[in-house]
Amino acid sequence: MPPSNAENEIIIREVVKDVWIFSRPFNLFNRLPVGGRSTAIKLKNGDVWLIASTPLTSSTRSKLAELGVVRYIIAPNAFHNLFLKSYKDAYPEAKVIGPEELNEKKRAEGWQLDEVFNTSVPDPKLGFEDEIEHCFFVGYKNKDVAYHHKASKTVVAADLLFNLPATEQYSQTQNKPSFPIINSWSANSWVMRMFVWLKEGDFAEMQWSARKVGTWDFDRWIPCHGDVIETNAKQVFKEAYRRYF
Known about the structure:
Elements: H1 6-9, E1 11-16, E2 19-24, E3 27-28, E4 32-33, E5 36-42, E6 47-51, H2 58-67, E7 69-74, H3 84-90, E8 95-99, H4 102-107, E9 115-117, E10 132-136, E11 145-149, E12 154-156, H5 190-199, H6 203-214, E13 220-222, H7 233-240
Parallel strand pairs: 6-7, 7-8, 8-9, 12-13
Antiparallel strand pairs: 1-2, 2-5, 3-4, 5-6, 10-11, 11-12
């Protein structure tokens, strides 16, 4: 659930030209301080592409209105869906995109995604490929999709990489994002490699996806959980996924 003072705790900043992040505290299972983050990208035609993983606060709405018209609302995996309906209600003309598994959850809310990733159509044509390419990790249990904004050399994804502690996401609170037992869950830690291994559903599919991302020209990675990897992100990704290279 969003914190009661979500409006005051959200941090909005431009990471690089036309790429904005919306960061906030979030405790997984009401215990683990992993943080949460949405990411908005202003496309060349003025439309806004948005990974929606944080509450739609008034400050979030104001910034999105400044950027342009929200045309794409992205659910980055099968678990980041808590706030999707509020965004869809606010931007009814936007196309909601995510893994097919989410439709089962959304059916209970009385709606469905507009475009889905699944094993039959792992590479759907979504309308923004010239600027943002994607890779569906079919073999990853969380059904994550990585997105690469070519102009800024930035990858945006949910649970493919964690980079904890979530310093920025907790910077407006009195709480420290210290993680029980584990001192660090940085993106290039053994904990991250173990997490990837535990989430592996199919080795061959994971290898194909990891190697595809490895061909992208990127330097920055924006995760939903933890601090932004501002530089050298491609090497960090290959270290975390070295089992597949």
